[in-house]
Amino acid sequence: MRRAKATWMLKLFLSAAVAACALGITLILTHTWWMPPFFDVLGYLAPLPQNLQVDVIVVLSAGEARTAAGARFYNAGVANTILLNGNDEIQGIMQPILARYGIPNENILELQGDANTYSEAQHVIQFLMERQFRSALIVTDIWHSRRAYCTYRALNNDEIRFYVWGEPMAQTRDNWWTGPSMHLVFEEHIKTWAYGLVYQVTPFCNE
User: What is the chain's mean pLDDT, rounded?
Assistant: First the structure.
């Protein structure tokens, strides 16, 4: 009886191992087919309106790419005010970038950043409401843009009109798994679906 059970368990283990190996090989061989749309899911791809003008450009806490994108939008006349969100260290990185783009200090607002996108959105929305801003362009990275946009929409109750810009990264949808940003994409998938469970923020919020 014990030998039969052991034999059955061994067969089950071997079958599972073979299935796992087969799945792994299949995923490797077909990665150029499924990995580009795996990346696309994270991006909020609605194009920005032509001649977009908003009350404020909100640059979510980050480094040079997001901040430079926000500065370009400012210089293109999208808004007369930029809000930098981040802790003191991040603000210290962002401020000199805006200075290089010639943006005056009096047109820059600062808000201390938060630990996650949800609490960050809560504080940004409160900050904008207190200053009677009614439209904003959120600037973030392309892989973060869907979760950011859907979080702001979920918390906003349509009191502020939000647009989102996802700044492209060095790798594209066709080769993102070849560079250092690969782990960010996988982590973002986990966070996106976790937000649906924890905060009821649906990732299917495209207009």
Answer: 80
